[in-house]
Amino acid sequence: MTVFKKISALILTTVLALSCSNLILLDNYEDVQPKDNLKLTVNGVVSDVETNQPISGIKITLEAFAENTPTLLPDAAKTVHTDENGVYTIEASGFSGTITCTLTAESPEDAAVKYETITNKVVVTWDGSSFDETSNTAYVNDCNFQMSRATL
């Protein structure tokens, strides 16, 4: 083989190797694209700050907003009530990027004992140990509220 053919073969091999490397990089890049229809599950316990006893019937409202915007996402307002043990689980879906959620705990209007309203903020980024890739669900556990009785 002449020197020219050896250099040409080496250049062609290098070009092919670089092309394959770029294909692999592009393939890896595609793997980290944003996912759609992400789901969120938040749970916690609501208790009385003075007695530490669970409070049943407290209304928990979740509102989800696109990152750094005041716009409520479509179908992203959900409401549940705590059970007899003060436990709640609230689920929402249809997300496709980082979201900021507000969780509000408040006494229902017909409650015998009224509590001060509390709001917690949670930022969901869809990564880390609380994200289950199989179900596309982020779990926010132990989002607890300790509520004070309202003064009339």
Helix content range of the residues, please? 10-25%
How much β-strand is present in the residues?
35-45%
Mean model confidence by pLDDT: 79
- Radius of gyration over C-alpha positions, nearest whole angstrom: 26 Å
Number of strands: 9
What gross morphology would you assign? elongated
- Structural class, from secondary structure content? alpha+beta
Which regions contain 5 or more consecutive residues with pLDDT less than 50?
3-33
Order of helices and strands: HEEEEEEEEE
The number of helical segments is: 1
Major β-sheet annotation = 5 strands, mixed
- Measure the end-to-end span: 97 Å
Description:
The chain is α+β, with helices and mostly antiparallel strands and 152 residues long. The protein is 19% helix and 41% strand. It contains 1 helix and 9 strands. It has one helix at 3-31, and strands spanning 38-48, 59-66, 72-81, 87-95, 99-106, 118-124, 131-132, 137-140, 145-147.
Observed structural traits:
five-stranded mixed sheet; 152 residues; alpha+beta
